[in-house]
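pipeline/complex-builder :: batch 7 item 3
reading input block
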Amino acid sequence: MRAVTDSATMLRRQVKHIWRYPTLILTFASVPVVFLLLFVYVFGGTMSAGIGADRAAYVGYLTPGIMITTIVGAAQGTAISVATDMTEGIIARFKTMAIARVSVLTGHVLGAMVQTFLAIAMVTVVALLIGFRPSASVPDWLGVVGVLAMFTFAITWLSVALAMVTKNVATAINLPMPLMLLPFLGSGFVPTESMPAGLRWFAEHQPATPVIETLRALLAGRPARSSFLEAAVWSAGIALVGYLWARRLYNR
Amino acid sequence: MRTFVSVTGMRKSYGAHRVLDGIDLTIPQGTVFSLLGPNGAGKTTTVQILSTLIKADAGEIRVAGYDLAREPGKVRAAIGVTGQFSAVDSFLTGEENLRLMADLLHLGRAKGRTRARELLERFDLTDAARNPAATYSGGMRRRLDLAMTLVGTPRLIFLDEPTTGLDPRSRRTMWQIVRNLVQQDGVTIFLTTQYLEEADELADRIALLSQGRLVAEGTPEELKRMVPGGHIVVRFADPDGYLRAASHLRATSRDEESLTVQIPDTGVSTLRKLLEWLDAQAIDVAELSVHTPDLDDVFLALTQEPSTKEPSR
């Protein structure tokens, strides 16, 4: 019970941080938006031919991958803010107080989810403006939000752990960087069938691909089938590893 | 007086480096205990262990009646820590910082708000209550820091170098705040400082830490009596007077360049005899000063590196 109320208090702390520096969300949204525009207008003509469709259809193909890019980009921002926070005296204060210890980290994760969702919303609005036409029903949209929440939760816990592996803020920025490649080395921008065998195997067996496939199906109003289960298993696994690792690093 | 903190045989090593090598301490409730020592002596490590941040390798430690190793949660509920690096959230306002503490202590909304307001008032932060702590001056940050520690009305407060980097006025304000805490609230204070003047001003008892061991412990007066540091310094107006006096007086040190001699003992009779003799000899004195031993003398005498330590007198 104490863990829940203390985590809620720490979430309020994070929300106040976000509220005081709202431009951070713009930063989180800007990179995916640039990617979106680049892939639609610069590469879009060629890429759409690859999936046998036009530029407008490619926006629909692309948007789930861009959403994942937003999540991993924001996770990098979270890593920076956690690493910076850990160098502050206030963390030592929290550790000497009779509170639920891990609530500091839970607050960071929940706060990061709020931030990430705001960024995803902005990116989605831009996608809609340039021709993204989802045909998802209300339950489909709920599924989209659920899958995004699961994956964000998982990646954020992982990046919180990565932020604490080193006490150095500069290193903490770089550790979650490889996550940025996941949507590229998956089905985010091109179909995995177009990749060479080894890469294709990786692309089809890494966590971002089932998440992207689920989003793509739901946004198009199709059933997500097995990719949904795969996405859920990956998310739960990453979240558990990230949580346990982060908790151990925090308590050392 | 009830014992509030008792430590026996506390040890801590990092690898082969022994930071604390068997510390014994007893702090009675409602007193100010000051731990002095040069940088790297183990002051901060001691505070970190006693405030549950890190674990000791060995030793029996009881804080507020609880065994530190077995019931750290109970200890945490009784203590407050104000560190040398401000433990405030710079992004939040002063009031929000205090409300954050109130929320974490489960005081409830109304009580939390009242407590925050009281503390802002008490620490003269009401005008800045709605500004982010990042905009505060050093003195304001320390006051907010201490105010945050007090939200939970702790019975033992660790002040780890609370005035390092503060200007003299802010330092005096902090001292007054600490005195009030002890006198009005009956709080026990564990103070570490590198300012001997600060320990002298505030502490009931002082312990000197050097290379992981306590080399002396007592009241400031007891410590000052431990070292012979009292002396009279006389500076003469001309070389003639200097030479005559230097050959007559039993000076412990003399300096021909500045025409000064240093005479041990600061007793009144010594001083009277000296003045009478100077008067009788009609020697011109440019300056005369009496030095009583201060904690600096104690500190320097007792905390020297072994290699440079003078043979004890």
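note: Residues 306-313 of chain B have pLDDT under 50 and may be disordered.
queue -> next item
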